[in-house]
Each structure stands twice: as C-alpha cells, then as structure tokens.
Design a protein that fits this description.
28% helix; single chain; three-stranded antiparallel beta sheet; elongated; alpha+beta; Ribosomal Protein L22, Chain A
Amino acid sequence: MAKEIKKITPVKKTVKPIKVSPVKKTAPKLKVVKPEAKKVETKIQPVTQKPVLVKYIDKNIKISPRKLSLTVDLIRPLRPVDTLVRLKFTNNKASRILYKAVANVIADAKHNFNLDGESLVFDQIFVGEGLKIKRIDKSHGSRFARGYIQKRHSRLTIIVKSKN
C-alpha cells in the first residue's frame, strides 16, 4: 500500500486597500445676535477696608498681673512708637517685659502686614492672670494663709491696628 502524500500549498491572501473618502464636517451656522446697547448707570462706592489687626499674646510671663497692669495703664493712651521711649526710661521689670512685647508687635506689623510703624495705634492692651505656682513653706507657720506661697504669672495681650 502506497501512501499518497498530498502537498498542501498555502493560499495567498491578497488584501486590497479600502479607499476611505474624507468626511467633511461642517459646523452648524450660528446667528450672531447683537444685544441692544443699554445705558447702565454705575455708582462708584468707596472701598472701605477693614483695619488690619496685629495681635501679640504671651501666656506665661513671670510677673504678677497687678505689677504688669500698673505699667500697662501708663502706656495705653500713647502710640506704640512713643511707648518704646517711655518704657526705655522706666526702671522696673514690667517695663522691660513690655518694651520687648511692643517692639515685637511693631516689627510684626511692619514685616508681615506691610504697615507703617508710625501709623499704628493700640486697639486693645490688657493683662490677665496666668498660672500660679503654689508652695507650702512650713517656716512661715500660720502666716501667708497656712504657709502657702503663690508665684503668680501674667498673660499679656496686645492688639495693634493702623490709623488709616
């Protein structure tokens, strides 16, 4: 038995390119409608700017609130620039603390808020009571309310605004 071997010839496929005609897309025509000119009266209102408030808070100053508030009462009616001169020549601990605080507020207003140092005014300046350190001292006996010694601290808040 002779086996018949069939030769398989590969079929050649020919691919014909398809011609695609370009599609012309036309946008729909829009009608341009011109609005009628109406006279509108505009009232120019003056621009009112809110004053910029610069705030300084120190929550733990090691001086009693009463001593600090006595010096604060001296500088409250003055401008911040003028207070620096007065505090420089006042000889107590409260004035040294307030000098640094007021100088800090003025520098903050100049550099961070672009305000003029000469045009600043105190909006609020007040002293509150901070923490108290309490100790019992047996040597005082019945004096000082059963031997309690209180170290008082202050809380200082300064708010400055520009005159303009």
